[in-house]
């Protein structure tokens, strides 16, 4: 007797490879010790939060003796949080974003689900460049949507605008842009996004239905080479920015996120109202109270991105020495190298034999590649070097 829906049962089956890798890592660490296992499988930031977070938590604890100090708030979030986010985002995006166009969400994942609940009709299609964050398909499917991956250009994972335009149909409702990108580390240029905006505008007018541009930006602060990360609001009116503080404040467990709606979107207040309603009826309501207070107190704080940049460079040297081809990530904290053999699962197993944990590229929509997360200490990365070399030798003979 099936205890689950067909959809969830299928999702469990599809995620088995990642679960097996996670379980294998636990067993390897028990057998060899954590220092002798090189786990690059999960994007779980290991840096401590900035000092301002600890200061905020102590202040919250002192204030908690007051009535309603952690009580219910308006469904869009505390007004002072929306004001704080307005200042922060306007500065980061170089675009004035008023508080009324921002709502708090349970992380970026919650924000994506809220947005899709608000705008999708069953059967709607959401495009995204491939490779892509593995959960996008599930988020769309939660509300009857269908994710349509569109392969990016190789080897540098730039947008294939011609392919994106060909993929647009009358059912297309949105495209998700994740920049800096998980898993590739690519940052899309202003010219790419401006051309994409022009394509979306043309097809929105042709179909008589808005096609949204969703910019998923939890890694925005990780811009290693200080290149421009364009604000999507400047290239397309029907756009939203969804982000979180899981990485920038190392608050992955606090579910501190937001949605910002382009102030230049015609009738944008209707979209904001729909997002607030979706936030409530999905049960998220908004960002947890403690996380909102942390956001307010840490308006000008973030972890040091230079630490991740140094790790990127060390990881690049390890891959160079092993003879592994890769695109040097410009942001985020992942490499997405090419497997030394066509079937990346063969190489993943060879790495596992050398106590290195990585994730197969097929889970991100691009077989023949694999993902490495470098949110681990430099010592772990350096010590993995010989294991990578031996794994390459094992598969190449």
Task: Tell me what you see in this structure.
The protein has 397 residues and is an alpha/beta fold. Helix content is 42%, strand content 13%. The protein has 14 helices and twelve strands. The mean pLDDT is 91.
Query: How many strand units?
Result: 12
User: Strand fraction band?
Assistant: 5-15%
Shape: globular
Average pLDDT, to the nearest integer? Answer: 91
Percent helix among the residues?
40-55%
User: Could you name the ranges where pLDDT drops below 50 across 5 or more consecutive residues?
Assistant: none
Distance between the termini: 47 Å
Q: What are the secondary-structure elements, in order, as H or E?
A: HHEHHEHEHEHEHEEEHHHEHEEEHH
Largest sheet: 7 strands, mixed
Count of separate DSSP helical elements: 14
Q: Strand sequence of the main sheet, in spatial order?
A: 2-8-7-6-5-3-4
Integer-rounded radius of gyration: 21 Å
Keywords, please?
globular, 12 strands, 397 residues, seven-stranded mixed beta sheet, three-stranded antiparallel beta sheet, alpha/beta, 42% helix
Compose a concise summary of this entry:
The protein is of the alpha/beta class. The chain has 14 helices and twelve strands. Helix 8 links the parallel strand 5 and strand 6.
């Amino acid at each position: 007797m099936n205890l689950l829906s067909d959809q969830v049962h299928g999702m469990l089956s599809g995620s088995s490879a990642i679960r097996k890798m996670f379980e294998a890592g636990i067993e390897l660490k028990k057998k060899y010790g954590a220092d002798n296992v090189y786990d690059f499988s999960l994007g779980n930031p290991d840096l401590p939060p900035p000092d301002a977070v600890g200061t905020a938590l102590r202040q919250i604890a002192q204030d908690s003796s007051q009535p309603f100090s952690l009580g219910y708030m308006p469904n869009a979030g505390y007004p002072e949080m929306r004001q704080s986010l307005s200042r922060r985002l306007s500065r980061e995006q170089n675009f004035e974003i008023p508080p009324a166009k921002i709502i708090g969400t349970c992380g970026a994942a919650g924000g994506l689900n809220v947005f899709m609940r608000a705008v999708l009709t069953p059967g709607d299609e959401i495009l995204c460049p491939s490779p892509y964050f593995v959960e996008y398909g599930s988020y769309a499917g939660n509300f009857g949507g269908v994710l349509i991956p569109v392969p990016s250009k190789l080897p540098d994972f730039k947008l294939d605008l011609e392919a994106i335009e060909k993929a647009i149909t009358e059912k297309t409702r949105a495209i998700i842009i994740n920049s800096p990108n998980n898993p590739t580390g690519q940052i899309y240029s202003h010219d790419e996004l401006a051309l994409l905006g022009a394509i979306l505008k043309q097809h929105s007018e042709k179909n008589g239905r808005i096609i949204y541009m969703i910019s998923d930006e939890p890694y925005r602060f990780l811009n290693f080479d200080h290149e421009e990360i364009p604000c999507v609001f400047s290239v397309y009116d029907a756009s939203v920015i969804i982000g979180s503080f899981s990485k920038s404040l190392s608050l992955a467990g606090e579910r501190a996120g937001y949605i910002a709606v382009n102030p230049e979107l015609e009738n944008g207040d209707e979209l904001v109202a729909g997002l607030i309603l979706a936030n409530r009826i999905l049960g998220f309501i908004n960002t947890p109270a403690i996380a909102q207070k942390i956001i307010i107190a840490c308006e000008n704080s973030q972890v040091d991105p230079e630490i991740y940049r140094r790790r990127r460079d060390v990881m690049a040297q390890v891959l160079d020495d092993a003879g592994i081809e890769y695109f040097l990530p410009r942001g985020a904290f992942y490499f997405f190298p090419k497997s030394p053999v066509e079937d990346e699962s063969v190489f993943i197993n060879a790495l596992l034999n050398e106590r290195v944990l990585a994730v197969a590229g097929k889970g991100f929509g691009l077989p023949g590649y694999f993902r490495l997360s470098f949110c681990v200490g430099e010592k772990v990365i350096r010590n993995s070097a010989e294991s990578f070399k031996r794994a390459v030798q094992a598969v190449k003979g």
